[in-house]
Amino acid sequence: MVYHSSFVGEEGITKACGFPLLPLKSHIKGPAPVSDQGKTDIVDEAITFFRANVFFRNFDVKSPADKLLIYLTFYINVALKRLEGCRTLAEGTKAIINLGLENVPVPGESGFPFPGLFVLPQSQKEAGKSLTIFFFI
Fold first, then answer.
1. Which of 79, 70, 63 is nearest to 113 (CA)?
2. pTM above 0.90, yes or no
3. In angstroms, rounded to a whole number, what is the distance separating the alpha carbons of residues 18 and 130?
4. What is the pLDDT of residues 89-109, one digit of tens each?
5. What domains can be seen in the chain, in order of their start residue?
6. What is the pLDDT of residue 132?
7. In 3-state terms, what secondary structure has residue 19?
8. Model confidence over 19-56: pLDDT tens digits?
9. Within 10 A of 75 (CB to CB), how many other CB atoms are there?
């Protein structure tokens, strides 16, 4: 059974390229609102559901938050592949930091992993906002 996001009926959530800007538990200022520290955020859901969702080839998207969950599952998978060859904590930390510093393609650019899943940016500002979503997650 595929696990879907619990952020289905979030009213008033702004979006960038179809990505919902859901609240995150973070001390870093970004485009997403800050969540309560005790409340589960979308990153927590992605980590919790990763082991189950990674085995599914098809995923029925029920909400924009599910699209973000798919992207986060992909990102976690990429991060784990980067950590595969690391033998020490220092090597692993460096690998994850380097992953965060890489250029990330946004919807509409070549190399974006899900070309039909997300809306193309309508403006440069929206493209920049979606890019910050990728960097802060």
1. 70
2. no
3. 9
4. 999 999 999 988 888 777 777
5. 15-136 (1.10.1760.10)
6. 59
7. strand
8. 788 888 877 777 777 777 777 888 888 899 898 888 88
9. 17
